[in-house]
């Protein structure tokens, strides 16, 4: 599990580093310009890191499934080499899936203005100011969302359905609560990631008359809440991390 936590931490750092340059420039220095090529690069990395986080959460749900449903084989199923292969698979899948995005955007002319609604570059925002035929972009974007978020979320739900079935089969109530408690950190991380995504999608789909500030606020929540909450979630629920923080705090007080 700790290898997956390391992957999640590095990915959250990648999300923050992808978005913060333009966000800080906008809000702290009132600098509201970004080059087109720089915008495409930022768009690529923001979407890539977001899709990687979905894949990491799926891998963590598999980790919880094996730990609870087949604990005696945990060490043989999730070996270091397999965890490394899963990490490389997530990276490769996200990179190759998102790689066409910048080229699909760059081929388009832009004649509907040059003002984006967010403090960073996203594919849907660029489509709103693009001219020409954007059907290919929209179709590929929908395919990527379903292929990534849709498939990952279905397998996460399936993992927890099997986990819940295994937990309910445990005779001791204390053991059932202990087994469920080992999943709480991951469940909170999944909710922190997927709930803002669902909220943003619902607003875009069903509340088209929403004020621009609502779209800006929800998009910032979607990108910044998971990296903010994940360290807190796992620090509170993981004994080893909690002890390490407490030890550092006591040393600083000495």
Automatic annotation (TrEMBL):
Alphabetically ordered keywords of this record: Cell membrane, G-protein coupled receptor, Membrane, Olfaction, Receptor, Sensory transduction, Transducer, Transmembrane, Transmembrane helix
Annotated compartments: Cell membrane; Membrane
The organism's place on the tree of life at top rank: Eukaryota
GO terms for cellular component: plasma membrane
Membrane topology of this protein: Multi-pass membrane protein
A molecular-function term among this protein's GO annotations: olfactory receptor activity
Domain G-protein coupled receptors family 1 profile: 1-234
Matches recorded under SUPFAM superfamilies: Family A G protein-coupled receptor-like (SSF81321)
One Gene Ontology biological process: cellular response to lipid
TM segment ranges: 41-62, 83-105, 139-163, 184-207, 213-233
Entries under InterPro entries matching the protein: GPCR_Rhodpsn, GPCR_Rhodpsn_7TM, Olfact_rcpt, OR51/52/56-like
Leader sequence segment: none
Family affiliation: Belongs to the G-protein coupled receptor 1 family.
PANTHER family, A to Z: OLFACTORY RECEPTOR 51I1, OLFACTORY RECEPTOR 56B1-RELATED
UniProt name for this protein: Olfactory receptor
Organism encoding this protein: Tupaia chinensis
């Amino acid at each position: 599990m700790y290898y997956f936590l390391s992957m999640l931490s590095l990915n959250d750092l990648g999300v923050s580093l992808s978005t913060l340059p333009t966000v800080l420039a906008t809000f702290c220095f009132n600098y509201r310009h970004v080059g087109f090529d720089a915008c495409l690069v930022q768009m690529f990395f923001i979407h890539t890191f977001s899709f990687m986080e979905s894949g990491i959460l799926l891998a963590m749900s598999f980790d919880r499934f094996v730990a609870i449903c087949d604990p005696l084989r945990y060490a043989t199923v999730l070996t270091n080499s397999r965890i490394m292969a899963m990490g490389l698979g997530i990276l490769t899948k996200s990179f190759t899936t998102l790689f066409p995005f910048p080229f699909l955007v760059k081929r388009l002319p832009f004649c509907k203005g040059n003002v984006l609604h967010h403090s960073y570059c996203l594919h849907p925002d660029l489509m709103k100011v693009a001219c020409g035929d954007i059907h290919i972009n929209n179709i590929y974007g929908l395919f990527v969302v379903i292929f990534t978020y849709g498939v990952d979320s279905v397998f996460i739900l399936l993992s927890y359905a099997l986990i819940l079935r295994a937990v309910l089969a445990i005779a001791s109530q204390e053991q059932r609560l202990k087994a469920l408690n080992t999943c709480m950190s991951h469940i909170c991380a999944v909710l922190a990631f997927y709930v803002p995504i669902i909220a943003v999608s619902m607003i875009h789909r069903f509340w088209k008359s929403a004020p621009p500030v609502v779209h800006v606020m929800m998009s910032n929540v979607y990108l910044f809440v998971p990296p903010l909450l994940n360290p807190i979630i796992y620090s509170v629920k993981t004994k080893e991390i909690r002890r390490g923080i407490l030890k550092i705090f006591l040393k600083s007080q000495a």
